Amino acid sequence: MRRLTLLCAGLFLLLLGTAAPASAHAALRATDPADGTVLRTAPRQVTLTFSESVGLLTDSFRVYDPTNHRLRTGPAGHAPGRSDTARLSLPAKLATGTYTVTWRVVSADSHPVSGALTFSVGERTATTASPAPDDAENPATAGLYNIARYLAYLSVALLLGTAAFVAYCRPPKAAPLRTPVLTAAWTLVASTVALFVLRAPYEEGTSPARALSAGSLARTATTRPGELLLARLALLLLAAVVVTVLRARRRRLPRRATLAVAAAVSVPLALTWAAAEHASAGIQVPLAITSATLHLLAMGTWLGGLAALLRTLSRTPALPLSVPARFSRLALASVTVLAVTGVYQSWRGLGSWQALTDTAYGRTLLAKLAAVAALLLAAACSRAWTTRLTRVRARTGTPAPTRVPEPATGPPLPEEPPPAPPPLPLHLLRRSVLAEAAVAAVVLALTTLLTSTVPGRTATEAARSGDPVAGIATASVTTIPFDVGTPGGHGKVQITLDPGRVGTSSVQAVVYGPDGGLSTVPELHITLTLPAQRIGPLDTRVTDRGGYWGADTFDLPIPGTWTMKVTVRVSELDQVTVSAPLRVMR
Q: Cβ(437)–Cβ(91) under 8 Å?
């Protein structure tokens, strides 16, 4: 079981380190100019409106002209009185053609948001700028940041749980818990420092090598996530000073005083998580932060207390049954708080029953609920063994020795020894608690993944507004390579459906030759088919517009995964048909 616990923790550390980081916790609601539009005159500024307030980086916006050269622009800022609206001024004169705007901001719940949009002045032209930046996330930075977040959750759970266990359950000796507490404390300090150092490259999507620059650290210290991390370090330092003073005076506080000191440090420590995650943005923020704080405290009390109980059981052979009995009551109260706050947070994060299965947040939440169910089953077994042990000890308590009266004709008879109580199966209780701890590691990992996943409510809002969560432009852009099998007869076709959702869209197609430049072809034919519903093929009826092919109107009747087929004829005799899937949203 110990090997299984270590294996579970290692696997989830690997999972958190290699999983693709989720971003875009703020949904892009509107842009001005709108994505994919053709303007008669050049705009003076670009405006992006999000579903929540966003923070701006030093290089939040980049604008590329039709030749893929970056334009010099002024600094980005917020619209007057609107923290959810970012604005960038453009140069006074813009040439005719298509411009690409890439952006990266930080949402209110501390996660970076990135994406891009295009607009055209006068007419639409081909552009080689990527519609979604390739360096949106740096895998090394994101992996290290996620591992540090998991270690922070794990260590704070151990600290909170051990403090509650010692203060409420009152084990006869706290010495066996000193080593794990010190390990958890140093791990929390180290992970918090790592989160602070990695914060700037995590927001910017750059390499970890830029983490230690003075400018990055100074900028992080002025942001809300950075201030909360510094506050966390200050609270840990304060707790260390209090413990050192008490140990120097060799004083052991009364039970109520110990609980008061533990609460005075634990509550603000939990607030440094709640104020930086999902609870800090969206609806009912004050209530959400309160619920998230109570949820974290209850989780730490239960899961960290499990580890403390397991350590105490293994290091204290003659442990009074009052200790696991008190922890059983403490765990029951923690589970009650977890259930109430968990239901509220699930409702707030999902927004609808459909999001439970249609979003990554909902599916992760279902996995966490399954793990919590397994944890409750293991906890029920532990509680049953605790109750059984208490009853066995009550029935077989050691009676006082009886003394037989001295006979008149001889020495006194020997005392009758009390009946030996049957052996108590403490090893079964240890195994049950160990199983709880193993499942608790899984629950903690899923909790960490859940806090870095786009909430279902935000994902639904993003889908309705046309922003598919990752900040990608609302227009659907599909690039399909082709090769007719003759020298110079290969290239690619870039097809843009704007907005690419159910309803009426415009279609534009640009053909690129082997050298990557624009290519003129005598014929281009594009159709769409929905095999699942037996719809199609629907002909887009694109026509040659002089440099690109287009159709002003094309109707997509229903959502689903369509098959786009493109027939390219490069000469009188040579043509080829290629296809690619196209996801159409409602």
A: no
CB 578 within 8 A of CB 568: yes
Residues 6+ apart with CB under 8 A from 391: none
Question: What single-letter DSSP state applies at residue 404?
Answer: P
Average pLDDT of the chain, as a whole number: 76
Burial class (CB within 10 angstroms; exposed 0-12, middle 13-18, buried 19+) of 43: middle
Is residue 127 within 8 Å of residue 508, measured between CB atoms? no
Whole-number Å distance between alpha carbons of 124 and 127: 9
Q: Which residues pair with 112 in a beta bridge?
A: 106
Q: Which pLDDT belongs to residue 208?
A: 83
b/e burial code for range 171-187 (CB count within 10 A of at least 16 → b): beeeeebeebbeebbeb
Question: Which residues does residue 174 pair with via DSSP β-bridges, in sequence order?
Answer: none
Task: Return d(Cα 399, Cα 92) in angstroms, integer.
Answer: 97
Long-range own/partner contacts, residues 477-482 (CB < 8 A, 24 or more apart): 477/131, 478/564, 478/580, 478/582, 480/564, 480/566, 480/578, 480/579, 480/580, 481/578, 482/566, 482/568, 482/576, 482/578
Nearest CA-CA partner of 259 in 302, 210, 303, 301: 301
Give per-residue pLDDT as tens, 342-360: 888 777 777 667 777 767 7
**Length in residues, the chain:** 586
| Joined tokens for residue 554 | 């094309």
Say how far apart CA 144 and CA 166 lie, in whole Å.
33
Residue 544 CA, distance from chain mean position: 46
Q: What is the pLDDT of residues 4-53, one digit of tens each?
A: 444 455 544 444 444 433 334 567 778 888 877 888 888 888 999 887 78
> Taking the CA atoms of the chain, what radius of gyration do you get in angstroms?
32
Supply φ then ψ for residue 89, to 5 degrees. -80, 140
Q: Is 290 strand, coil or helix?
A: helix
Amino acid 453: pLDDT? 66
Which band of pLDDT confidence, cut at 50, 70 and 90, is reported for residue 455?
low
Instruction: At 565, list the tokens.
Output: 């087929």
- Checking DSSP bridges between strand 112-121 and strand 38-39, what pairing results, if any? parallel
pLDDT digits (tens, 9 = 90+) for 237-261: 988 887 787 777 666 666 666 667 7
